[in-house]
Design a protein that fits this description.
globular; 3-stranded antiparallel β-sheet; alpha+beta; about 70 residues
């Protein structure tokens, strides 16, 4: 955005979700997968506001970070 306006993470996820949903509907899909760091503010964003479900987790030794694996059906 060239106007200097910042968008929230919530808006960004909403835009990305809309684009992915459109692509997946056109190609016959209905699932979105993602990995995110195990941080409460990210879980609040994805789970509470965008209806993702945790289905697994993985640990990156190179990053020293625990990632949650999430899924959303539409």
């Amino acid at each position: 955005m060239d106007n200097g306006k910042r968008i929230s993470g919530d808006e960004l996820i909403g835009y990305a979700g809309d684009i992915l949903a459109d692509i997946q509907h056109r190609t016959g899909g209905g699932i979105i997968y993602l990995d995110c760091e195990d941080k409460q503010h990210l879980k609040d964003l994805y789970i509470d506001r965008h209806h993702y479900k945790i289905f697994g987790e993985r640990y990156s030794h190179s990053d020293d970070i625990r990632y949650l694996q999430m899924i959303r059906f539409f």
